[in-house]
């Protein structure tokens, strides 16, 4: 006879709370009902240690398709930009005639295991594991064989799972092309990364690809970046400090900022120096953060395609046949989604 199944009552007894509290926390409703973060953490840890699993589907249905897909993320829902990935995934799920079940871990590895286990108890047909920012991970063992798609995530080790990512290399080329098309051939400087990369926000994998694309596009016409100012954090104050430092040593004709928030700081430093955008200095950036369209002049930027990323993840999960993971030829590779340029008013021909 197998081991006795762990129940809600078992978890509640260990933590010293009611079964209702445990149920609310493990169903993701703890915050909405104002259960403290500390209590939620204790419940999740106890559930993980006891290997508690919720059985939402009767054993009679095991193996049957439920027309459901699990979307498990770190902080996508709480991110104003990345939240559009959920909208894209929801739209694609409706096209495929399936229901999207969503859960957020806030980066808690233990809760991620619990959440994936809970979703499996619903007998979901497949998983999308997502991140608000592109980064590398060790693929969770619970998802190692699929059917699953990694969204904005790259596995550190060989994996049969497909990854869906923004095409940051192409984005770097597109940003450089904006300046080239405007006639810029000299005085181009980087804000947010050194000319050879490095010293960027920890956990980010975007900087190296954006930088490579910039260098490739410029090199094809014999143009070089004159300098780069690394920023450990991509925040307005860092962009301001980096641009002010640059202006103390050189007079740029154009800036490529690695993030729109850096560009906001760059605008302020240029204004303080009595320079105008784009008459004196052209500026191009990345992400299409809401601040990009509110800056004056409005900022030309290469947009992160959050909606398309979410939709593509669901589409690839179902492949061409409507069965998630059935197209094995598509698994174990990276699918890159194009990043469109949002042309606004921050770039002009050099004077």
From TrEMBL:
Domain HTH lacI-type stretches: 6-63
Record bears the keyword DNA-binding: yes
Family matches, as Pfam families: LacI, Peripla_BP_3
Gene3D superfamilies: 3.40.50.2300, lambda repressor-like DNA-binding domains
Keywords on record: DNA-binding, Repressor, Transcription, Transcription regulation
Positions with biased composition (Basic residues): 330-345
Residue segments, region Disordered: 322-351
Molecular function (Gene Ontology), one example: DNA-binding transcription factor activity
Protein name: LacI family transcriptional regulator
């Amino acid at each position: 006879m197998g081991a006795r199944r762990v129940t809600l009552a078992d978890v509640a007894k260990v933590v010293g709370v009611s079964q209702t509290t445990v149920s609310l926390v493990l169903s993701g409703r703890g915050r909405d009902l104002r259960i403290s973060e500390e209590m939620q953490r204790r419940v999740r840890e106890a559930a993980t240690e006891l290997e508690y699993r919720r059985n939402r589907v009767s054993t009679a249905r095991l193996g049957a398709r439920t027309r459901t897909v699990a979307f498990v993320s770190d902080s996508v829902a709480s991110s104003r930009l990345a939240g559009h990935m959920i909208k894209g995934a929801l739209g694609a799920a409706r096209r495929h005639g399936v229901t999207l079940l969503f859960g957020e871990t806030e980066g808690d590895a233990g809760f991620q295991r619990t959440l994936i286990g809970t979703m499996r108890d619903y007998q979901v047909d497949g998983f999308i594991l997502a991140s608000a920012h592109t980064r590398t991970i060790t693929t969770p063992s619970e998802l190692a064989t699929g059917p699953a798609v990694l969204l904005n995530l790259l596995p550190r080790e060989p994996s049969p799972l497909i990854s869906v990512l923004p095409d940051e290399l192409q984005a770097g080329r597109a940003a450089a092309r904006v300046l080239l098309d405007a006639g810029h051939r000299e005085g181009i400087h980087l804000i947010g990364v050194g000319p050879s990369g490095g010293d960027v926000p920890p956990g980010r994998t975007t900087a190296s690809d954006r930088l490579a694309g910039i260098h490739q596009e410029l090199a094809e016409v014999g143009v070089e970046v004159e300098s780069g100012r690394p920023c450990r954090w991509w925040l307005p104050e860092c962009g301001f400090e980096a641009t002010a430092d640059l202006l103390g040593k050189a007079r740029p004709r154009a800036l490529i900022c690695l993030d729109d928030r850096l560009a906001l700081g760059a605008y302020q430093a240029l204004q303080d120096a009595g320079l105008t955008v784009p008459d004196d200095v052209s500026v191009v950036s990345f992400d299409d953060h809401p601040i990009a369209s509110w800056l004056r002049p409005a900022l030309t930027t290469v947009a992160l395609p959050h909606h398309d990323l979410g939709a593509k993840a669901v589409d690839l999960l179902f492949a061409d046949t409507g069965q998630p993971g059935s197209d094995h030829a598509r698994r174990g590779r990276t699918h890159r989604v194009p990043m469109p340029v949002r042309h606004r008013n921050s770039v002009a021909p050099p004077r």
